[in-house]
Amino acid sequence: MTVHQPTLKQLQYLVALREHGHFGKAADACFVTQSTLSAALRELETLLGVTLVERTRRVVRFTALGEKIADKAVRVIRETEELAELARAQGKPLHGELRLGVIPTIAPFLLPAMLPRLRTEWPDLKLYLREETSQAACEALHRGQLDCVLLALPYACGDVDSVPLLDDRLFVAFPGGEAPSGTAVEVDAIDEKRMLLLEDGHCLKDHALSACNRPELRAHATMMGTSLHTLVQMVDNGLGVTFIPAMAIEAGILDGTRVDAKPLRSDHGFRRISLIWRRSSPREAEFQMLAGALRQIIADLIPRDQPVAVS
């Protein structure tokens, strides 16, 4: 008796449908027509003898079994991609496609200067960028949608390996004329009733609050911003104070404002910018090579008195 197995294409369509929650959007993401994707999924359901997706005019809802099979499909697709990566990694390093995730509190400050250097040093590398919050980037990494991520640690991102690139100091930003005296800001000098923080999902908020070790700062935050640029504008208009990483200040985020920023005095007043990847990835040697190139580029762009401790 011949047993027909699901095809990789059918599994890719299933995963795309769950990700987008819409047949048309899933079809567009897979570069096929909606009818092609729908027919392939019906064939998959017939093959397995189960219903994976409940279809209505307005809602696409996965059954409980459909969710479990989609989870398994993600792992199968990732393993298949890693098989191809394993073969490619034996050839020319940093050659071909690489999908890099970057969090929003790094991307606008590092990428404009970093990318031209990477194109010069690795002309055969096709780098595809995806800007995501820390949580979304880690999820995409483990789903196999990203190969590696530029992330700020510490952050719980699952079973990953990492290479540190830069210790990025945290500053406290005040409206013009309101910064306390001294070269650094004491934790106790921060008024929790005027605190402006990034929305949930941005690890910078957690790093800053952890450095201060004051849980009430989170509870009393008066506003949640969508980006560092938004927070800087609010501070410049006298609405409160916020945390800014040195990387953003050196990239000119305070240019044209009256904002005063001073370093936070804390034993943990920094975030560690790192390149991370799945521990199971066969491209570790390439990522180590990429991390070395990034560390050199960052050192040239952002000279530091203290080198990053590599452990």
TrEMBL record:
Keywords: DNA-binding, Transcription, Transcription regulation. It holds the Pfam family HTH_1. The keyword Transcription regulation applies. Gene3D superfamilies: Periplasmic binding protein-like II, Winged helix-like DNA-binding domain superfamily/Winged helix DNA-binding domain. InterPro entries: LysR_HTH_N, LysR_subst-bd, WH-like_DNA-bd_sf, WH_DNA-bd_sf. The keyword Magnesium does not apply. Residues 6-63 form the HTH lysR-type domain. CDD domains: PBP2_OxyR. Belongs to the LysR transcriptional regulatory family. This is LysR substrate-binding domain-containing protein.
